[in-house]
Design a protein that fits this description.
The complex is a heterodimer of chains A (329) and B (319). Helices cover 27% and strands 23% of the residues of chain A. Chain A has 9 helices and 11 strands. In chain A, the strands form 2 sheets. An 8-stranded mixed beta sheet of chain A has the order 5-6-7-3-8-9-11-10, sandwiched between helices. Chain A has a 3-stranded antiparallel beta sheet with strand order 2-1-4. In chain A, a hairpin with a 7-residue loop joins β1 and β2 (25-39). In chain A, α4 (143-155) packs parallel to α5. Chain B has 319 residues and is of the alpha/beta class. Chain B has one domain (3-91, 173-314): P-loop containing nucleotide triphosphate hydrolases (Rossmann fold, 3-Layer(aba) Sandwich), CATH 3.40.50. The longest helix of chain B has 18 residues, at 187-204. Classes of the chains: A alpha/beta (329), B alpha/beta (319). At the A-B interface, α5, α6, α7 and α8 of A face α7, α8, α9 and α10 of B.
Chain lengths: 329, 319
């Protein structure tokens, strides 16, 4: 398996004015030392709450924002990457017909009128839209139709790498299913690699091959999807999983979350999750930033609860319970 | 059982420049004390219109409501605007999707809660402030003393939704309607808000109506479920009946379009979109999108059939 994107020590700091003292400037660490790589033709999921830096990571990958420091190695051409946003209504020019919006891309990238037209027709067919949408303006389409068109537009230049930022969060379930299926089909058709950003664990579990969980600008856990859902290691990932509503009324009620959510710009000393962490160890977690460890093969976690050696059993009781010889080490 | 709310043959029409929209077309349901009803369906199916008419929140000149909404025996639709004041926000209140829009951006949040006590319970400024502070603590806002003096923009979405809930429950209503109240929130925050609503239900015996398009929220919260499509209830039953034995093709389609579990085959999506509701329906409204549809579905309105007990569905060709 070859790598298409490699992200090394990526940081993006924004300078913000303090609310109390307007002359005092401080730094908002939106992305703070993030490392990951994405393999060709996989769907890589980034999960986290709002404010965790998910979208900023996406924008950095697309060169929409410049990193403060760090490196993004992209193995692909100039038109090789595209992005799809949550709200399709704000990602099209409201004054232009949709046909014009799409043709303009061909114009800018000198595809030629004929080739552009051919690609548009093909993509409309693949996204189950009819030619007459091209005469319409964005507001005349439903959210689902317009999101499908946004996907078609992103594929017009035949990119290899697609960043999809919460692409189904604003859609109804029925329409959400159409768009999720569409991603699956087009991924096969075009051999796409997708970076899928979402706060919805259910959608991510369904869509992604591998997942990175981000918290306050840092990746806290990375693993293959089935692995991370089976042996959820980081207390934050466990909290996210526990907050998922149940799938059936007969499922047992989940325990209330032990700690209040805090929405803070200030990153604490030590582990950034420790103020919310029900398992934090005083004197350790509040002092030392946990390094990333490979607890199982290809399963990385940044947490003091886990030993360094990949072969040792996890210190966490919940994870230890699951140990019944199913681990492949 | 102790019925709090009984809606029968409710119809809501809107007069618009493009014609009359038949948004709710004859809806019946009842809700007992301390119970939770979930109303699910896609956008544009009339869920919000239905629950807003319980509080008479529609612009009266442009709306025509008929039928009955019996709230403890009184028909809400017959009450004078003055009598409505004694119900809306007092005995029945509502929270919406975006808490930022529900609050006044230039008033401190504590004052917005205190305002209710001063206006409705004729408290002094000091008493009202004390009550407001107590409520802030009860909905889990910490540190309450500090937050009291903050403006909406200084709080996160989850915190703001708690403030909105504090205002909604300030006069201890018997029924609380949550219209997509957790849709815009993060997963962990959604859980906290749902846990808060559950606690209020238990503590105060409050009845809840939860409007959502998320089957997870319904599974988590509801005793009974009404599935709405094109202004009508297509299926109604206990949460268990709807999840275990969905009878209407629309309900089945909604459930199977929700992703669950690991990466797998294709999700079943529902082609097309809900109809616009200008024309009165002559056949089943779901007919054009239904995988089970037959000729007679187009020709005649399907009747309500009973599956078992209270479990009913509106379809002539169930599987």
């Amino acid at each position: 398996m070859s790598t298409i994107v490699e992200v090394k020590n990526l940081k993006k700091y924004y300078s913000i004015k303090s609310a109390d003292d307007r002359s005092h400037k401080s730094e908002l660490k939106a992305v703070d030392d993030v490392n990951f790589l994405v393999n060709r033709e996989e769907v890589f999921g980034i999960v986290g709450e709002s404010g965790s830096g998910k979208t900023t990571i996406g924008k950095l990958l697309l060169d929409i924002e410049a990193p403060t420091s760090g490196e993004i190695v992209f193995e692909g051409g100039k038109t090789g990457k595209q992005m799809i946003f949550q709200n399709p209504y704000t990602s099209f020019n409201p004054a232009l017909t949709l046909g014009r919006s799409l043709e303009e891309i061909g114009l800018v990238h000198k595809l030629g009128k004929e080739e552009t037209g051919k690609r548009i027709s093909l993509l409309l067919e693949q996204t189950a839209l009819t030619e007459d949408v091209l005469k319409r303006k964005p507001k005349e389409l439903s959210g689902g139709q317009l999101q499908r068109l946004a996907i078609a537009r992103a594929l017009l230049l035949r990119p290899e790498f697609l960043v999809a930022d919460e692409p189904v969060s604003a859609l109804d379930v029925s329409v959400q299913a159409q768009v999720i299926n569409l991603f699956g089909e087009l991924k096969e058709e075009y051999g796409l690699t997708i970076l899928f950003i979402s706060h919805d664990l259910t959608v991510v579990e369904y869509m992604c091959d591998r997942i990175a969980v981000v918290y306050l600008g840092r990746i806290v856990e990375t693993a293959r999807t089935e692995q991370i859902f089976r042996d959820t290691l980081h207390p934050y990932s466990q909290m996210l999983l526990a907050s998922r509503p149940k799938a059936h009324p007969d499922d047992p009620d989940s325990e209330p979350l032990e700690n209040e959510t805090t929405n803070t710009v200030r990153i604490p000393d030590g582990c950034r999750f420790f103020p919310r962490c029900p398992k934090h160890i005083s004197g350790l977690c509040d002092k030392i930033d946990p390094p990333e460890k490979e607890v199982f093969p290809d399963h990385f976690v940044s947490c003091h609860l886990y030993p360094k050696s990949p072969k040792a059993a996890p210190a966490d009781a919940d994870a230890a319970e699951a140990e019944d010889g199913t681990y492949v080490i | 059982m102790n019925t709090l709310l009984k809606v029968s043959n409710l119809k809501v029409d809107f007069m618009t420049v493009r014609g009359i929209v038949h948004a709710v077309q004859g809806v019946d349901f009842s809700l007992n004390r301390g119970k939770t009803l979930g109303i699910v369906g896609e956008s544009g199916c009339g869920k919000s219109v239905l629950v807003k008419s319980i509080l008479r929140l529609h612009e009266e000149q442009k709306t025509r409501c008929s039928g009955n909404i019996l709230f403890e025996g009184h028909n809400i639709l017959d009450l004078s605007p003055r009598e409505m004041l004694a119900i809306r926000g007092v005995r029945a209140s509502m929270i919406f999707q975006d808490p930022m829009i529900s609050l006044n951006p230039i008033l401190k949040i504590g004052e917005q809660i205190a305002e209710t006590f001063r206006a409705r319970r004729s408290m002094t400024k000091g008493q009202a402030a004390e009550e407001a502070l107590r409520l802030l603590k009860r909905v889990g806002i910490t540190p309450a003393e500090e937050r009291y003096h903050q403006y909406p923009f200084e709080l996160s979405g989850g915190m703001l939704q708690r403030v909105v809930i504090a205002i909604a429950i300030s006069l201890e209503p018997e029924i609380l309607i949550a219209d997509e109240a957790t849709t815009a929130l993060d997963m962990t925050v959604q859980k906290e808000i749902l846990d808060l609503l559950k606690w209020l239900r238990k503590e105060k015996g409050m009845s809840l109506i939860v409007v959502t398009h998320d089957f997870g929220v319904v599974a988590e919260m509801c005793d009974s479920i009404a599935v709405m499509y094109a202004g009508k209830i297509m299926e109604y039953g206990s949460a268990r009946q709807i999840f275990n034995d969905p009878c209407h093709p629309y309900t089945r389609a909604l459930i199977s379009s929700t992703p669950s579990g690991a990466k797998g085959g294709k999700l079943i999506s529902i082609p097309g979109a809900p109809p616009e509701l200008y024309e009165p329906q002559t056949g089943c409204a779901f007919y054009p999108r239904c995988s089970q549809a037959a000729e007679r579905c187009r020709e005649s309105l399907p009747a309500m059939h009973s599956a078992s007990g209270n479990h009913v569905f509106r379809c002539e060709r169930p599987q």
